Amino acid sequence: MDVISLTKKLLSFNSINPPGNEEEIARFTGSLLSEYGFNTEFYVFESGRLHLIAERGLSPDKSPVVFSGHFDTVPLGNNKWSVDPFAGEINNGKIWGRGSSDMKGGLAAIIMASIEAFNETTPEGGIRLIFTAGEELGCHGAKQLARLIDGKGTASALIIGEPTANLPATGHKGAIYLNAVTSGLTAHSSMPELGINAIYKAARSIMKIIDFKFEAEKDPLLGYPTINVGKISGGMNLNSVPDHAEFTIDIRTTTKIDQEKILDRLCEELGNETVLETMVNLQPVYTSEKDPFVQLVYDICEVEGSGKKFPMALPYLTDGAVLQKLYNNAPTVILGPGQPEMAHQTDEFCYIRTLEQSVNIYKNIILKRR
């Protein structure tokens, strides 16, 4: 077994979310790691959906390094694939399939590096692998798992194996996902004065969102917070006054704002016309590049900090937003073999060479960590 054959095997499991169906891939992964001496434990997320935690070599004297990944993938999309998305076809120096970059290739590299590290020695402090269900729609699985394992162990550092083309990132923005609802009174559209138009209420709120000011200073790594309305729906038919409308709000946050205060301000500005439901509220991930663990990762990845490219932040959300908080702000690096631009794409692929490189990178992190 090598990282390519393991990636191919993981790609064969259809874990598209929704619905997820991560139980089969979780049990395969747990069985494999058990064969190599890892203690494994499954946690139920939902029916047919499992998280997996695997540990080996833990010591009371030193906290383990934690590697994190997720089993689920996004849907295939409407465009036709030119390859079988579950076959792991290999050509042109790439392995193709849904999840090859995001992030079954990363899972395979983490697993292989962990196994190979113990073939050489017993790493000081050991390893904990946390593989989640239900990441793709807002890290709901990791949030649920964190509640189940809170207080069970510590971590010296975190590696989140999301796609970065093997370039270490030391942060990403937080996220607040909101569903906004407006209500009205239906009437015939020829007599609109008898109704209350919920779409008009939504429109007024959206105009306020366009003008919303965060009043935040620039974060050196993450920049400025942003806000976006991404989806809207409402009404029953053309000739009725709509009595219901809803839209989504996506806020990306930095370390320079208080997320609860932002929510309070937004509620105040939108007023009673709009009811906000919080679907996701996750903090940013940030670690100083001066941290010794980050410097170790930089050395292993052969990158130089404080340059044009580093420190590097990511535009997307990861389970690190949950796990860094769970493990008391342990130094966290997002680092994986997948191509970031291939995540969620039709004909998704991962380069063979980056997969193979990532095994060595992860293994060196495990063995050289102090």
Describe what this molecule looks like in 3D.
The structure is a single chain. The protein has 370 residues and is an alpha+beta fold. The protein folds into two domains: 3-172 and 284-368, Aminopeptidase (3-Layer(aba) Sandwich); 174-282, Alpha-Beta Plaits. It has helices at 3-11, 23-35, 100-120, 140-149, 198-210, 259-270, 292-301, 320-326, 352-368; strands spanning 39-46, 49-56, 65-70, 90-91, 94-96, 127-132, 157-160, 171-172, 174-183, 187-188, 226-234, 240-241, 244-253, 275-282, 285-286, 313-314, 332-334, 349-351. The protein has a six-stranded mixed beta sheet with strand order 1-2-6-3-7-17, with helices on both faces. It is globular. The relative contact order is 0.19. The mean pLDDT is 96.
How would you sum up this structure in a few lines?
It contains nine helices and 18 strands. The protein is an alpha+beta fold and 370 residues long.
